[in-house]
Design a protein that fits this description.
By secondary structure, the protein is mostly beta strands. It is built from no helices and 11 strands. Strands 2, 4, 5, 6, 9, 10 and 11 form a 7-stranded mixed sheet that branches. Strands 1-3-8-7 form a 4-stranded antiparallel sheet, with no helix packed on it. The radius of gyration is 15 Å and the shape is elongated.
Length: 124
């Protein structure tokens, strides 16, 4: 079982910055991709950014140019740097990791893991 633990959330004024961190309980080199999702009250969880094992990144249109995702395989961590935060960025942010497995019982299948979430609140 994999545990993902997020940190770095908090309250910030619009225009400010935060850096979220996600620590994994095992080596992340096999996770592909890893990413950040968020869920605002009354809304569905949505992808914010993801990063593949080779460092390829993808971002939601709403955060393009403001957020930056990175991973450090030596520390088994990923990060989300958030700049020029806006009130509509307010949400619980979740770390996600996916891995492709091939087992005798289940064959080839994808598993994913989630952190418990960290609250980000952006005031006007």
């Amino acid at each position: 079982q994999v545990q993902l633990v997020e940190s770095g959330g908090g309250l910030v004024q619009a225009g400010g910055s935060l850096i979220l961190s996600c620590a994994a309980s095992r080596r992340i080199s096999t996770f592909n991709p890893m990413g950040w999702y968020r869920q605002a009250p009354g809304k569905q969880r949505e992808l914010v950014a993801k990063i593949t094992r080779d460092g390829t990144t993808n971002y939601a249109d709403s955060v393009m140019g403001r957020f930056s995702i990175s991973r450090d395989n030596t520390k088994d961590m990923i990060y989300l740097r958030m700049d020029r935060l806006r009130p509509d960025d307010t949400a619980v942010y979740y770390c996600n990791a996916q891995v492709l497995l091939d087992t005798i019982i289940a064959g080839i299948h994808r598993e994913e893991y989630w952190g418990q979430g960290t609250q980000v609140t952006v005031s006007p």
